[in-house]
Write a structure and sequence with these properties.
single chain, mainly beta, Jelly Rolls, six-stranded antiparallel beta sheet, 34 strands, globular
Length: 472
């Protein structure tokens, strides 16, 4: 006896759908709906709350759009701070869908909100068929059971994909052939606090018809790019990894929280240690750590003391919303193997805001001013900078600014061996502030800040700048 699917304006069995993340490739998929938000759509999206179709704010980390100049985003042009809790929905136009073939929804996602979880600033994706809500999925950066998968780190564009099954199988009797679908993106701040962030950004929304028999894709345990990194929790359970084939790499990420500080307060400083261990007999790991961007390498290790062919990288950072990316690969590009990876963090008491030697140097990120203070006569502050391979040496600029009354900075630049390669006291046109512009090849360097007077104290801001980017 054949199953009969009776459709009268809606398909009742949709209420029991259980979509799964697509784990297979579907070549020759057919496009059913597409919007990159840069051209004029045939039909407009229905927007309420703070949803907009534009490219603001331009200061959004990772950019306010994935492709082109515009995205679908939830903010007032700068943030979603309204003085009260707020929410809104963006609904696509209705579009026709087939009955006997599956569909895939995909879109690009970026966000900067109060939390990466679901307690506040909730981000939802909803599916409507024939006027009825049939699926609702909450996005989160970790621990999500949503078939859309976990979000990437804040400020990094990443991809979500959701496979929807056919409404009926060939041979079923379907009374109504025409079916329609729409996609809804919903944001809810939940409360009125800590809403001064850029919000949620969606781009390149696609719905395709799955046109062929699935072709299995060999499973990879962790992403091969920073945008697909698996989040690892410091002091949490170790994660297992595998270099499944020669040349495979595994990416992980550690996100530091954004701390709301009172004026003049300093963010807490933590020491991070990441290790690979429990290696299979064929494994020899190489661990590389990057800060915020894949180009900003801050540490690398092959064989660490006490870990055999395992690796260890340690660094210190203040909690200010940074994301650290960890890349694990085999030392030999022709071999494979398994490993475990763990991350530890520990609070570092700060009697001094920055270390007094290169061994305790604070990482100085590019284009992000860092405050410092010469707390007592004779105090010095050390910073570490990492010059990537694809920057011209002449692009490296270090300068101090925002000096307190009586402050007179003196900068000294060292190479990785401790050799002095540059210094400056009072830069032209900058009063008692300092500036070094130096031609530096790829490598690790250190800069020392001190007061010109051995008896002087005061505060300052130091900034590392790249003037021009040049590709490989």
């Amino acid at each position: 006896m054949r199953k009969t699917a009776v459709v009268l304006g809606c398909f009742l069995s949709l209420l029991e759908w259980n979509p799964a993340v697509a784990q297979e490739a579907f070549p020759q998929d057919v496009l059913l709906f597409s919007d990159d938000f840069d051209g004029e759509p045939e039909e407009a999206w229905a927007l309420d709350g703070l949803w907009n179709l534009d490219g603001t704010p331009s200061s959004m980390p990772g950019g306010a759009a994935f492709s082109g100049k515009k995205s679908l985003n939830y903010n007032s042009g700068a943030n979603y701070q309204t003085g009260s809790s707020n929410s809104g929905a963006a609904l696509s136009p209705w579009f026709n869908i087939p009955v006997f073939q599956g569909k895939r929804l995909s879109f690009q996602c970026n966000y900067r909100t109060e939390t990466t979880g679901t307690q506040y600033d909730r981000r939802k994706v909803k599916i409507h068929h024939n006027g009825k809500l049939v699926g609702e999925y909450v996005l989160s950066a970790s621990g999500s059971s949503s078939p859309l998968g976990n979000c990437g780190p804040m400020g990094v564009w990443h991809h979500h994909s959701l496979e929807l099954p056919p409404l009926a199988k060939p041979g079923d009797i379907v009374i109504m052939i025409a079916h329609s679908m729409r996609v809804e993106f919903e944001f809810d701040s939940v409360d009125a606090e800590y809403n001064g962030y850029p919000g949620w950004f969606v781009d390149d929304v696609r719905v395709t018809r799955l046109n062929t028999v699935p072709v299995p894709i060999p499973k990879d345990d962790h992403g091969n790019a920073w945008s697909e990194a698996t989040q690892i929790n410091p002091n949490g359970e170790p994660l297992s990894g595998s270099i499944e084939k020669p040349g495979d790499v595994d990416f992980f990420s550690i996100s530091t929280p954004i701390i709301m500080l009172l004026p003049g307060a300093k963010p807490p400083v933590y020491k991070y240690t990441v290790e690979t261990f429990d290696l299979s007999s064929s494994m020899d790991s190489v661990l590389t750590v990057y800060a915020n961007l894949p180009s900003n390498k801050i540490g690398q290790n092959d064989d660490a003391a006490g870990l055999g062919y395992g690796s260890r990288v340690t660094w210190t950072s203040a909690l200010n919303g940074d994301t650290f990316f960890l890349k694990v690969e085999h030392y030999s590009k022709s071999k494979t193997g398994t490993y475990k990876i763990r991350a530890k963090s520990e609070f570092v008491p700060q009697d001094d805001d920055h270390g007094n030697s290169s061994a305790d140097a604070t990482l100085l990120p590019a284009n992000q001013p860092v405050g410092g203070k010469i707390e007592k006569p004779g105090d010095v502050d050390f910073f570490r900078i990492e010059v990537p391979a694809f920057f011209l040496a002449s692009n490296t600029v270090l300068e101090t600014s925002d000096l307190s009354s009586g402050m007179d900075t003196f900068l000294t630049l060292y190479d990785s061996t401790g050799k002095v390669i540059g210094y400056n006291d009072d830069a032209p046109g900058m009063g008692t502030a300092s500036r070094i512009s130096k031609s530096l090849p790829k490598g690790t360097y250190y800069v020392r800040v001190r007061h010109y007077s051995s008896s002087g104290t005061g505060s300052y801001t130091i900034t590392l700048k790249w003037q021009t980017l040049v590709g490989n």
